[in-house]
Structure formats: structure tokens, C-alpha cells
Design a protein that fits this description.
about 230 residues; DNA-binding; Arc Repressor Mutant, subunit A; 2 domains; mainly alpha
Length: about 230
Amino acid sequence: MRTPNSDMNTGLKKGAWSHEEDQMLISYISRYGIWNWTQMPRFAGLSRTGKSCRLRWMNYLKPNIKRGNFSKEEDGIILHSHSVLGNKWSAIASKLPGRTDNDVKNYWHAHLKKRVNHYNMNSKTTEHNSTNTSLNSFHRDSIEEIKQPVNHIDKFFESCLTSEDDIFSSSSTGASEDQEVIDFRYDYYDTGSPGTVDDLQCFWQQLQTFENLELGNNHLNMFSDEFF
DNA sequence: AAAGCTTTCAACCGCGTGGGT
DNA sequence: AACCCACGCGGTTGAAAGCTT
């Protein structure tokens, strides 16, 4: 959050958005749609850059933005996707309905990176001492966080096998295709019966085989027996 | 209670890309 | 081919909130 201030040269406002500004942007977009981010602020009566308006809309005001804690499923998807794609936050976010690239990026830096780093460090330690079965408190906490029921893995995998859309592709070719993928993912989240962490492990391994993905071993191992 | 430290996350910035001219 | 412009992305910042001492 940044303190509201303004650029003395341009007269444009910077920093945190007020409720009034939010309402102005929402009402303008709901009435006229998004046609040109650069011109829009002027017509909407906002003293903001187009960039700022776009960011505010995309990350906060847009309908269906999901707020609150990330689920275990989302953790797993981010961890896996990051192992495959690296810091391609928008590509990772596209696999998580309602989450923005900024959300995913922040969550990675605040939570998951530590967990992965810790796991990597722990792996190196256990490589040198294979008889060491003790876990420190952080590692144990990480396990308990991940070792929760993971929903609908079978259904998700089945859909992957039958869908012509490559849901692990980072690119999209059009809005209608995007919508299709999103709808499919909502199905994945909203229906079916709970799975287990074993399902998730099995899922990623099957997917790796199926798509011939070259995964980093460390992330895959997060779901292995050794890790638990 | 308060000072200092850490974490969170909204927002900014610079740069790359693609489409139009 | 070269330039311009709009957009999107990833890295970074910094205020607010939360936590610890």
C-alpha cells in the first residue's frame, strides 16, 4: 500500500486507490467496457495513468477475483507449475481461476519459496546422511500443510487426457478459448470427490509421462514417500 | 505500552512484444 | 524496415498490519 500522492509534473495521482476512484473505474468499465487503457482514465474522470487503471482492474476490481488463503490444491499447482515454467507468473496464474499473476507472485515469495528452499536444503542433508530420519519443526510443518486431502485429481487428469486444450501451455490464442479453459477449471474445482496426496503424486507422475515433461526432481519429490 | 522487527500485498517501474502505419 | 503506441509481464518497493521483545 502506498500513500496517496500525486506526480507534480503530470498532476496524475499515485499510490493507493480510494473507494471513490474504484467506483469510478468500475462504473466506467461496466458502462463502456475496456477499449483503450491509455485514453480511458481521461474519459472516466480519473487522474491516473492507464497503466495504473489496468493494474487496479486486473488485480483487484475485476469480477471473480478470488481473495483469501490459497488452498492445498493451489499450492500444489503453483509448486508444480513453477518447477516447469519458472517465474512465469501469468502462465501459472492462468491455471488458478480467480488468482492473478501478482497474487501468485506474492504468495510464492511469501510462502512457497521458503518451503521449496527448505526442502532443497533438507534433501542435500539427507543425501549425505541417509539414516537421518529426523525432521525439524519447519519441515514437519510443511509436510502437514501439504499432506491434506487434494480434491478431484482423477477428474482433472481425465479431463487433461480428453481435452484438446493444452492446459499447461502458457500461451492462449483468444478470449473464447481462454473462457473454455476457465470453465473447465471451475468444473475441476467445484465437483467430484476428494482425493489424497497420493493421488496428487500419482497425477503429476502420470502427467509427466504423458506429456513427456522434464520436471525438476525436487518438486516432484515433494509428493514422494521420502518427503513424508 | 511501546519500540523494533517482520510479513504481507497493493502498486509502481522498466522492459519486451506485437500490431498498426 | 523503421518507428510508434498500447499492452502485458516480472521485478521491486514501501506502507500497513502483525508479531516479538
